[in-house]
Amino acid sequence: MTSEPPHQQTTQQSLTLEPNDARYLAMLCGQLDSHLRQIEQRLGVHISARGNQFLVEGPTVNVATAAQLLTHLYAEVCQGVELGPESLHLQLQHVEPGVLA
Asked: Which of 62, 65, 87, 67 is nearest to 16 (CA)?
């Protein structure tokens, strides 16, 4: 029996973002979930969302990073920070799988 190398092991992580506010969640996800797709593409994960419930699936280290990033971005959105494609792109430039600055 062979196990996958650590960078190829996959997992899933669920998270609940609070407060459950439709306006903030819409800002986090972006128009037609464009922000989620941008995060997925950069980190190589799959993100599904239903309300304030999120499920992140993919390589273990990337899943943890994406979950931390979603939590961080949601906290910023709730504090009034505007999140657009450009600002998300800048945030993603500073993200390395396994390390969130």
From this structure: 67
